[in-house]
Every structure is written in C-alpha cells, then in structure tokens.
C-alpha cells in the first residue's frame, strides 16, 4: 500500500484561476474570498452553480479574477471537505 491511497486527482487551477477561501457571504450571489495570491476579492457565483452547489464560509473554491477589474472574480469550482483538506496537506492553500 502506498501512503497516497486516499489521494484523489483534483481539478487544479488553469492559467487564469486561483485557489481561494470563502471569507464572507455577501448575499445576491456574491461572496468575499481571500485568494492565494494575497488579494481579497468579491466573487460572483455564476447562475449554473447557484441552485446546484451550495457555497458556505470557509469553503475552498477556484476563482477566475476579472482581467478588467482585479478586485472581482467569478467562482469556477468548489472543492468538498476532503478535497480541501488534501489541498491544505499538499501545501496549495495557506491559511
């Protein structure tokens, strides 16, 4: 048995995406996120995610910062708890 048996292949960020942790729920499909590049942004939950995926504080998400307004972003992916713990263990996310 390898020590890697519980590891799943997780979706990693594309070139224009960053890991982020949800800090605050703002309402109206918006959340405040702290991105791993050191910037706090207002992120938008896109319509295709709104009813299917529930996003809560302290969730780990992937965001795509807007290229014309750096303080805003769109959420592209949400990790579940096991995946988030794995990302923290592997050092992708610093609290």
Automatic annotation (TrEMBL):
Keywords: Initiation factor, Protein biosynthesis. Residues 6-80 form the S1-like domain. InterPro entries: NA-bd_OB-fold, RNA-binding_domain_S1_IF1, TIF_eIF-1A, TIF_eIF-1A_CS. It comes from the Archaea. GO terms for molecular function: RNA binding; translation initiation factor activity. Seems to be required for maximal rate of protein biosynthesis. Enhances ribosome dissociation into subunits and stabilizes the binding of the initiator Met-tRNA(I) to 40 S ribosomal subunits. Belongs to the eIF-1A family. This is Translation initiation factor 1A.
């Amino acid at each position: 048995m390898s020590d890697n048996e519980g590891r799943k292949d997780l979706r990693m960020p594309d070139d224009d995406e960053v890991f982020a942790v949800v800090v605050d729920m703002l309402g109206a499909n918006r959340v405040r996120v702290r991105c791993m590049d050191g910037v706090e942004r207002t992120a938008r939950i896109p319509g295709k995610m709104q009813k299917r995926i529930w996003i809560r504080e302290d969730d780990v998400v992937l965001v795509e910062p807007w290229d014309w307004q750096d303080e805003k972003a769109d959420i592209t992916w949400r990790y579940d708890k096991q995946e988030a713990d794995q990302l923290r263990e592997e050092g992708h996310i610093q609290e």
